[in-house]
Amino acid sequence: MTKRQGAALDRKKLFADPVMVTTVVVLIAFLTLFIIYPLAILLVDSFISPDGGGFTLSVFKRIFDMWTFRTAIGNTLKVGFVVGIGSALIGLLFAYVEVYVKVRGKFMGGLFKVVSMLPVVSPPFVLSLSIIMLFGKSGIITRYLLHIYDNSVYGFWGIVIVQTMTFFPVCYLMLRGLLKNIDPSLEEAARDMGASRWKVFTSVTLPLMLPGLGNAFLVSFIESIADFANPMIIGGSYDTLATTIYLQITGAYDKIGAAAMAVVLLSITFVMFLVQKYYLERKTAATLTGKASRARMLITDKSVRAPLTVLCSAIAIFVILMYICVPFGALFNTWGYDFHLTFKWFERVFTRYHGLQAFTDSFVLSLIAAPITSLLSMIISYLVVKKNFKTKGFIEFASMLAMAVPGTVLGVGYIRGFANGVFRTGFMQGLYGTGAILVIVFIVRSLPTGTRSGISALRQIDKSIEESAYDLGAGSGKVFTTVTLPLIKDSFFSGLVTSFVRSITAISAIILLVTPEFLLITVQINEFAEKGSYGLACAFATILIVITYGSVLLMNTLIKHFGTSKKIKEVTD
After folding, report:
1. Are 428 and 419 in contact (CB under 8 A)?
2. Strand, coil or helix: what is 48?
3. Predicted TM-score (pTM) of this structure
4. What letter would DSSP give residue 481?
5. Relative to the CA of 154, which of 52, 80, 125, 266 has its CA 20 to 30 Å away?
6. Cβ–Cβ < 8 Å for 285, 182
7. With bands split at pLDDT 50, 70 and 90, how would you rate the model's confidence at 567?
8. Residue 166, CB half-sphere, CA atoms under 13 Å: how many?
9. In whole angstroms, what is the distance from residue 67 CA to residue 105 CA?
10. Cβ contact 101:299 at 8 Å
11. What pLDDT sits at residue 31?
């Protein structure tokens, strides 16, 4: 049987199963309605004249005539490049030390684990709060240790430092796996020929991992230019595209202009996403030599080990110090002036500022979104890996597209699409301003992460296992629920907790969509941080970190005892 005949037979089996056909149709409708449609509306707003005059570039001409917008583009690209380079290099440093350097004791291993976990379980703007409390005008380090009373952390360097410290653990996790897969014999052969360690690194190791390093740079670059919360809190007058779009809607009430700005930001991230996904990922896979034939001989030279270990330790301790500032900021009476311990900020969270409602709303909405996201991710992964049909490519592309869409852009698209777009009446128009639209945004934002994890897990399952169930008369739905899903329980649980954590800590995609009916924790933190009420912001953030970290520990325990493997998987896989 030829490959084409096999694909035709798979399609015939698929469309003979009503459950699978219904699933495919529902998925296509969901992805089209909640991912493709909002982005299409932005394009319509940007290129079609509002008076029905047809194609026009007048909206783009108007926004590019605004010096604030042109400045924001330059600022965004500048920050993105610096953060991308810094995050990739620091990530490489940490990955290299863990994989190549013999570190004494378990201290470094514990530091690496903590640093890689913290960005996952914390709100995206926690470090902005910390750096203000450490290095601002009332900062512990600047004011009380260095006696500097006029230091400002706002602006370009504040954003760069915070984003680099936030995103480099992602690069570290990516590059760690890449370095582990390089065959040690390649480097040892160069050493045997008399090459120095630096020569081996520059001529053997670095060329093998260069595409992966470029991949890490692009991921950090995309995350940086799409970030809303950190520039909003610590940017000051240094505007980026994400904050400019937000202010264009909330300040200038210019939805059409904001839509055109969103298209510009989306174009930048989309191009980078395509390069990262369809070029660098393939190049990275091609450079790996497979499983190492023997264990790597770790570097024990003190001249190499000592400086690298000290540098990594200093960076890791600095990051941990910034996270520790958050609970202390909530325990001090007045940060920077009165350091008497008090619980008044935690009390006010629940007595004056509707903290219970904020935590309840955030928890419930995230808890609803998490299992739906995880299940959808596994279904999409199953269809992509195990089935052959013409619209499979669309399902895979649309589900991964949300990774390239900045949260602010998606928020503008939902406003234009569901507040006054095609659906001016009826159920879809009624979604805007409800909890359902927030749940949908949570699902869309977390779908790419779960889908990638599911695809990786499913590719390890032999097709014959499922074919045996088909031969016994089971339908696609029965095979998926009784055979496939139990085999990928680890990925399902991992997707579940990742989706919950991403949802409850989200800010950029929902700040434009949330209404007074719903109070979300991240929106509250952002509001109090902007007002300079750091005690309240830290109290909210501390409780949120406890919730998310507790969720991760609980889910890891479930995976350990009920998953397909006794090995605990990281939620970032």
Report:
1. no
2. strand
3. 0.83
4. I
5. 266
6. no
7. very low
8. 27
9. 55
10. yes
11. 92
